[in-house]
Amino acid sequence: xxxxxxxxxxxxxxxxxxxxxxxxxxxxxxxxxxxxxxxxxxxxxxxxxxxxxxxxxxxxxxxxxxxxxxxxxxxxxxxxxxxxxxxxxxxxxxxxxxxxxxxxxxxxxxxxxxxxxxxxxxxxxxxxxxxxxxxxxxxxxxxxxxxxxxxxxxxxxxxxxxxxxxxxxxxxxxxxxxxxxxxxxxxxxxxxxxxxxxxxxxxxxxxxxxxxxxxxxxxxxxxxxxxxxxxxxxxxxxxxxxxxxxxxxxxxxxxxxxxxxxxxxxxxxxxxxxxxxxxxxxxxxxxxxxxxxxxxxxxxxxxxxxxxxxxxxxxxxxxxxxxxxxxxxxxxxxxxxxxxxxxxxxxxxxxxxxxxxxxxxxxxxxxxxxxxxxxxxxxxxxxxxxxxxxxxxxxxxxxxxxxxxxxxxxxxxxxxxxxxxxxxxxxxxxxxxxxxxxxxxxxxxxxxxxxxxx
Length: 454
Known about the structure:
This protein is mostly helical. It is 77% helix and 1% strand. The chain contains 22 helices and 2 strands. The chain has helices spanning 32-59, 63-67, 73-105, 107-127, 131-134, 137-165, 173-181, 183-201, 204-209, 214-217, 219-231, 237-244, 253-260, 262-271, 273-293, 298-326, 328-343, 346-350, 355-381, 386-405, 408-418, 422-443; strands at residues 2-4, 10-12. A two-stranded antiparallel ribbon has the order 1-2. α7 crosses α19, α14 (262-271) packs antiparallel against α22 (422-443) and α17 (328-343) runs antiparallel to α22. The longest helix is centred in the first third of the chain and has 33 residues, at 73-105. The radius of gyration is 21 Å and the shape is globular. The relative contact order is 0.17. Mean pLDDT is 82; it is low at 1-29.
């Protein structure tokens, strides 16, 4: 296999034939241990993203009226998107805290806790009284619980990726990571189907009164299943090997990360600018734009998102599979090209008011994002050594989401309110994020198929 170095030139590498730290085939992707790691990672990610996705859709539809009724409609939507952004802002802190713990105490132990924390926060959101009942206590409590959701997801997302990456051999690491990453679009489909069904079966008043709580309360059963499956997964061979050598606890992971790998982490942050921002513009903001600006009803809008997210699952798997064969960076650049192709005419197509054309353009943009997401786990894991891999990967991804994804729906809504050419400004912002990602990815090494560094 040929991979690109920092200078852009290619160098020959051989994919590893056994997982790092395993000493043999035991950790191979076909073993029960590896299969359980993939299943638990995908299921755990899907369960946690389900609650996150439900919140994103509701923040664009019913939360402005339930928690910010005294504000003007536009301002209430801004406030609702701000609470949505709180979860993304909390992710870097969760990534740092759980990353340090995961690098020192093990991936498995941390992931058990993050799953429970997300479940508790989600159930409490489902039980939360609205502004009409308790006044300002309602939005304040919503912000706190949203913060806990993001805090848990900051540790969960990268940790579950690493559980899969470190159980898998390099020649299949991209596909294994893609199997885990489809938890996000699968959860989007499940969340949207749930909301679509509720919106179709309930009246508007019933949905606004109590129907929106059902998805959050479902977390009790979902988290119980996820916890049971995750409990049966062993710690990763590479972490155990690193721990037995005594290298994993020689210094604080965060200190070692900042001392030796600061540039790499900064580039990983910037690399996720485009997929992070454009995902939430084409999903969360698009729901608000379709229902608020173009007059689409909630049921048809949620149905459109089901179609787009369902198709994008295949794009994620294709991205991971392709990255094992042509390299991670080629896949990432291909994803950026797809995003560019659909971003430029994005709002022009939506403004036609045609459901099929809207579904086509949103699906295309999401496929570009998920094609990149398919190899993101492997690309980030391969960039850092074992003692700081959890901390560094988590900070790279979560800080990228905090800087670019978290403000995206809020920024898009604000640009629409201050300018008659709001959609043009949103498109310009999207183009800027694509440029930032392209430069950062160009500067990062491609270590496709190599052993994970100890």
